[in-house]
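# nightly structure sweep
# worker-07 picked up a monomer target from the shared queue
# config: single-sequence mode, recycle default, output format = structure tokens
# input follows
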Amino acid sequence: MMEFVADLSAWEIYAIVCGFLGSLGILFGLLAGKRFGIALKVLPLVGVAITTPVTERVVIPYLAQRYPVIFANKDLPKKIDQKTTLTKIDLTDHIYSYFYDLDDDDDDFDPPVVKSAQLSDLCNFLVPKFSSGEASLANYIYQLKGRDYSFSVDSTDCS
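# output follows
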């Protein structure tokens, strides 16, 4: 069920949380309404009012941690710069794979040069994933004119 929710858009996630919390407010309002008449009017509103903080502080962080790939792919494809578009992120057996399309007609694309130029930024991003055991390797696959160019980064590259 939660995997389905992780794949929804942000407004759909907010709507589900609002419906759930509002329903809980009605239920508790009915139960408490026997003793406190105002509870049926107030508790559903409280449930709706706390939708935003609960969604932003609990639900979305939980979904992002539990289903990182689904959550990361929601906004793709995404333009990284003038020439590069991130099209897909995959995680299989603790190996992240990032797929890019290059819009440039640059026949001199050299993966080792790209790796060395971006290694510091990549390591800043990947070291926490390596340290936690979430990832053991990251592959970067660039497609240019129907050909794939790639390089990999592991923890030894970042030490």
